[in-house]
Design goal:
Aspartate Aminotransferase, domain 2, alpha/beta, Aspartate Aminotransferase, domain 1, 12 helices, 382 residues, single chain
Length: 382
């Protein structure tokens, strides 16, 4: 049997990417600006709708960093951040010399708990430290409880920086993720639902935020015949070549979402009746792009079979899977930061596994994956 690598989520080209890249070479637009950058921003704006404006950047992390700058986060401020996420959601808080305050997950979507969010805000205000921003994250493409989160944010007049890095195409009752907050961010890293190789974007209904992001991301050069700078700038702009890949990817985004959701349905059909295996389901009105299919493996119900047993069995057969994100409040680098919750994210981390979810998985790939999963899970006692 073929033992070639099955990746967790590998890039999947659609066919037109090369044409846009060739156009960049043919016209010598290989700088961090150009027609593909403008076109990619327009493509994203048209897709997300809601009147958003877009600045294409080098990474999603850069978008979070610039978003925090524009929301006025400075040294010694506090920023509320979802604990269960990739470190890139939290690291830019420290770039600004600010301090993250971490919020636990809720069990329905695995995202920021509105209950603990409000508890944290009240407690920080009572201690004389009103948070400057809130960063919820749409994990694995599943939208967070944005209606509740936005209501709390409005109540306390705290802006929301919405991390939609994993959720392009996900929505709640038709409103796209990335368009709920004051600022939204997207990622086009190599493993995302569409990719620009490396890249990200800042999204906002406020045109001046997108314009300022473009300004700051090109070293904040003032209008002058010489190089003059009145602000600290950054080298965060997306290149015209990378944007060309993105333009080609946008043409197949609906297909990629359908393929990822089909992966989820395939896993659900195969595993949902296995004792101890559970999935995160879409609440009513929610639509997830199912960037990654994830499962919880409860050893108390599987006869002692753990997440690690399954992961290592897949790894042995050259199949990549990985645990859910380790919560930020458990990370050594954030030791000592405040945390509000009941341990939900810790349990998710202990039991959660991301399964291979690429839009380019084949029937043969699934045969190999299910062969391993069924073999491991069949060891449960009767």
């Amino acid at each position: 049997m073929d033992n070639s690598k099955i990746w967790l989520s590998s890039p999947h080209m659609g066919g037109m990417e090369q044409q846009y890249v060739n156009d960049a070479f043919d016209t010598n637009w290989v700088a961090p600006l150009g027609p593909n950058v403008d076109g990619f921003e327009k493509d994203l704006s048209n897709y997300i709708k809601e009147g958003v404006h877009v600045a294409a950047l080098s990474t999603g992390t850069a978008a979070i960093h610039l978003g925090l700058i524009m929301l006025g986060v400075t040294a010694k401020d506090e920023v509320i951040c979802q604990s269960m996420t990739f470190s890139a959601s939290a690291n830019p808080i420290n770039y600004q010399g600010a301090t993250p305050v971490f919020i636990d997950s809720e069990p329905d979507t695995w995202n920021m708990s509105p209950e603990y969010l409000e508890q944290a805000i009240r407690d920080r205000i009572a201690n004389g430290k009103k948070p400057k921003a809130i960063i919820p994250v749409h994990l694995y493409g599943m939208p967070a409880k944005m209606d509740e989160i936005m209501a709390i944010a409005r109540k306390y007049e705290i802006p929301v920086l919405e991390d939609a890095a994993e959720a392009l195409g996900s929505h709640i009752n038709g409103t796209m993720c990335g368009s709920f907050g004051e600022i939204g961010i997207l990622s086009f890293n190599g493993n995302k639902i569409i990719t620009t190789s490396g890249g990200g974007a800042l999204v906002s209904k406020k045109e001046d935020y997108a314009a300022k992001a473009r300004f700051l991301s090109t070293q904040a050069r003032d209008e002058a015949p010489h190089y003059q700078h009145s602000h600290i700038g950054y080298n965060y702009r997306m290149s015209n070549i990378c944007a060309g890949i993105g333009r080609g990817q946008m043409e197949v985004l609906p297909e990629r979402i359908n393929q990822r959701r089909a992966n989820y349905e395939r896993y659900y059909k195969e595993l949902s009746n296995v004792p101890g295996i559970s999935f995160v389901k879409e609440p009513e009105g929610y639509f997830s792009n199912r960037w990654l299919t994830t499962v919880l493996i409860d050893p108390e119900k599987t006869g002692g079979i753990t997440r690690e047993d399954v992961r290592l069995a897949l790894e042995k057969e050259n199949i990549e899977s990985r645990p859910l994100w380790k919560p930020m409040h458990l990370q050594p680098v954030f030791e000592g930061c405040a945390f509000y919750g009941d341990g939900t994210s810790e349990k998710l981390f202990e039991q959660g596994l991301c399964l291979p979810s690429g839009s380019n998985l084949t029937d043969v790939d699934f045969e190999r994956i299910f062969s391993v999963l069924n073999s491991v899970l069949a060891k449960q006692p009767a």
